[in-house]
Amino acid sequence: MENSHADQGINSAAGDTPAVATVLLVEDNEDNILTVADYLTFKNYRVVIARNGRECLEMAVSSAADIILMDIQMPELDGLEAIRRLRRMPGWNRKPIVALTAMAMAGDRERCLAAGANYYMSKPVSLRELTAVIESFLQNTHSV
Question: Taking the model in full, what pTM does it have?
Answer without folding.
Answer: 0.86
